[in-house]
């Protein structure tokens, strides 16, 4: 049974904006999915359906087989942890540890478990030294990590991240990517909303491409991100590696490679064949 | 939980006889209804107040937004009703006080829905209010939509962390709002600092004597609106005196 199942979902905001127009999608346990698409495509609206923050105008969303209309946001959030784009829209506690404990207490864990989970989450994201610091004194990257820690603390089956790489410098992005990939290899279902093609090219997940409230493509990153028509439709640029190979296509370079190391191998092979 | 009712306080650029009135005239209309509402606690005159307001709302073509604002403050109105009913077990009075509150909001909602922040600023400036104050006021109004959107995002983020606003006793429920209020206020302060820096770097306040491209001018219809409002209020006062009751039942 898929852990998240979206069936011809339509959603219209109260002000009349039709943000989703017939989206069907099914995410299996342990999958790594990147939802991509230009601004306003409806990505955030879609993931807000995964924990019941928004309820379908038409169609149906099931989490673990349960219709989201039949469960509370709190119940659904315990299974599907949403990390919002801007950490500042959730940080409010006096200390970092309180911030992490907040959700744990809301979900009714015993104080013993809360203590254990807080310690675990702090070390997971390298925030131990800030345990009693105010969240407002942390740097942008640290605040982002704290927001992530505060969600991972309750160990949800599915982690959904909205634009995690926005506003991060290259080093932070690299670390975050490693961390997210690691989460997935440890068995967690990970959904990342992003329009960072390089990030996706590095992780090589399943890509769900959205445009104007609909899914326009769903497949391997290497297929979707090397399809010029699709990229154009979703206003994305192709990854740099694919671009380089595209410009070398007259040398016989394949066009469906997005991974840097794979590209290097391909190019080396080409050069060797030419006797360089 | 949805905060969409706050949208009911937001101006949309439109054209209607009410939109075209001078902001000062519109303000006098709202004031006259405020004065009227303050005179009465009885249900019937307050309903008459609504009956007078309603045609204006339709003329302004803002009925849907106006209703949304009223729906939004209904909770507060019920609270006012409940408290008054508990304190003085006078049902009619409690209903009247709640209605009076709704009428006030309804009148000023019409004013804000039909007056652009720019016009409001001009009106204040031309009435001799210092520009700094005018600017602060109009900026505050302009930022209402931003604040609304942000509040909704914060509510969503905290609900995703298991916060249930409608759970627990009264005290717990009040405390439930802390995780919403803190990020909202911190964000607002941060933004105001940014705004101040941006304005200063664009030399805000350098010219001593500001001039405006547009100037508001009262016309015949504006004077007429003011006259009618004043007449309406005086008539209400006369009726009130005739009915021989204390003039101002200032209960809440
Ligand atoms: N709270 C809201 N009220 C009304 N319209 C909204 C709201 N949030 C988003 N929208 C609109 O819905 C559409 C999809 O938005 P969103 O899901 O945020 O897109 P994305 O995350 O892909 O950038 C956009 O047209 C946006 O303007
Ligand atoms: Mg978004």
Q: What does the model show?
A:
With 276 residues, chain A is α/β, with parallel strands linked by helices. Chain A has one domain (4-238): P-loop containing nucleotide triphosphate hydrolases (Rossmann fold, 3-Layer(aba) Sandwich). Helix content of chain A is 38%, strand content 21%. Chain A has helices at 43-47, 73-79, 96-106, 111-124, 140-152, 170-185, 197-203, 221-224, 228-233, 240-247, 260-273, and strands at residues 4-12, 18-27, 32-36, 58-63, 66-67, 80-83, 158-162, 189-193, 206-211, 214-220. In chain A, the strands form two sheets. In chain A, strands 6-7-8-3-9-10 form a six-stranded mixed β-sheet. In chain A, helix 3 (96-106) runs parallel beside helix 5 (140-152) and helix 4 (111-124) crosses helix 5. Chain A is globular and about 65 Å long. The mean pLDDT of chain A is 92. With 252 residues, chain B is an all-alpha fold. The mean pLDDT of chain B is 87. In chain B, 29% of the residues are buried. Chain B has helices at 17-20, 23-39, 43-59, 63-87, 91-114, 117-126, 131-142, 144-159, 170-175, 178-201, 220-242. The interface between A and B is medium-sized, with 27 and 22 residues. Magnesium ion binds next to helix 1 of chain A.
